[in-house]
Amino acid sequence: MEMVADPLAPPKARRGRDGLRPSWRCLSDPRWATVSRVFLEAPAAPIDSLRQRLLEVLLEVLDTEILLQSLSEGKICILLKPGGDEADMAVYRPLTMINSDMKILCKALTAWLTAHMPRLKHEDQGGLYRDEALV
After folding, report:
1. Which portions of the sequence form the region Disordered (predicted)?
2. Distance CA 82, CA 91 (A)
3. How many domains does the chain have?
4. What range defines the domain where residue 106 resides?
């Protein structure tokens, strides 16, 4: 009888030759040092547990290369355009409200990208100047 893996079980962490999980090795990588700094150098106190949890989520995503399903879920609300007839379906517009965890994770990654943007863009490029934020 062949053993079948449980589809609901978390994926096994891959380990490198040094026996470390990739998420721990990446902490020494300068690319991810800035990401860690976003979480670890924020003001202390009430957000300590939130900062630690977000770092764990980010490292898990880097380790497994899979986003948590809850991060990609959203709720769709239908909004009536101003001055539109409620009976006409064309005057409604959908609005997707994404998970707040995903919003926070995106803001942290945006802060990381903003810090590295001057090195990523060519000097002839006219957009994304140094003092502008990514939106």
Report:
1. 1-20
2. 8
3. 1
4. 22-72+99-120
For 9, half-sphere exposure in the C-beta direction (CA atoms, 13 angstrom radius) is 6
Residue 16 in any domain: the answer is: no
Question: What's the pLDDT tens digit per position in 35-64?
Answer: 555 555 545 544 566 667 777 777 777 777
Write out the DSSP string of the chain.
------TTSPPPPP--TTS--HHHHGGGSHHHHHHHHHHHTS--STTHHHHHHHHHHHHHHHHHS---GGGG-EEEEEEEPTT--TT-GGGEEEEEEE-HHHHHHHHHHHHHHHHHHHHHS-TT--SS-TTPPP-
Pair 104, 80: CB distance under 8 Å: no
Q: In this structure, which amino acid lies at residue 48?
A: D
Q: Residue 15: inside a domain, yes or no?
A: no
